[in-house]
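Provenance

Sequences were taken from public entries as deposited. Structures were produced by running a predictor on each sequence independently, with no templates supplied. The record for Chitinase from Sediminibacterium roseum is shown for reference.
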Amino acid sequence: MQTHAQRSNVRKYLSEKKWNELFPNRIGIDPAHASKTAIDFYSYKSFLAAADSFPQFLSNPDPVIQKRELCAFLANIAKETGGGWDDAPGGYYKWGLRYTEELNCVKGCPQYSDPSKKNYPPVAGQSYHGRGPIQISWNYNYGQFSEAYFKNKNVLLNDPSLITKNAQLAFASALWFWTTPQFPKPSCHEVMSGTWQPSPKDIDGGRLPGFGTVVNVINGGIDCGPSGDPDTKYRYGYYLFFCRYFNVTPGDNVECSNQKPFGS
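Predicted structure for Chitinase:
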């Protein structure tokens, strides 16, 4: 985390008007009238404020690579929080950012607590299920993000629900995950910015630079490989949707259907 925010390159490509076009049905927006009916939680202003604290996001000077990284990030937050369906008004891909937390866990999901992570122990009574734009999950992720953002791991270990109460914090959790490598995985930013070089083991597992490896970083155990979740097609679809919107080619290796998950 940077202590002093810088101006994010997000502004080069994304205005509030475009944000509203891309996410017209986000939480807090009335889909029938596109007017605010409640707190506009996933607002452009909140996203921009968080992005200014992560200057490495979109930091490659090549505009094509910047656009691809932006499209990859938007694709994943839209899929993680999406409420679309095939015949949805405006199309499936206009329903991103509908949810702030994992729907099946609103009453808690204890399976996301891993007591073996001694540096970030789960707190009794707390649920570390998916929250925020990228659905940060597990006590060790909450603890690491809390340490980076608050300089205190216990803030979010003690109250992970803070992410659903503060939009800038929610977007920061997604950008922290996006820009932070966790061995044996690179960060999503490293993959999309062109700084990650696959090892021989990565190459043997089919993991090559491109959007498919980002999917692998985020959800490889479920989405990747020949038996990956059929709904992963929507994650690829979101990426191609945003690439068309921002007029950029998607690059190579868009899918992870031929990839082994990291660590396998």
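The CA atoms of residues 96 and 262 lie 27 Å apart.
The first helix runs from residue 16 to 22.
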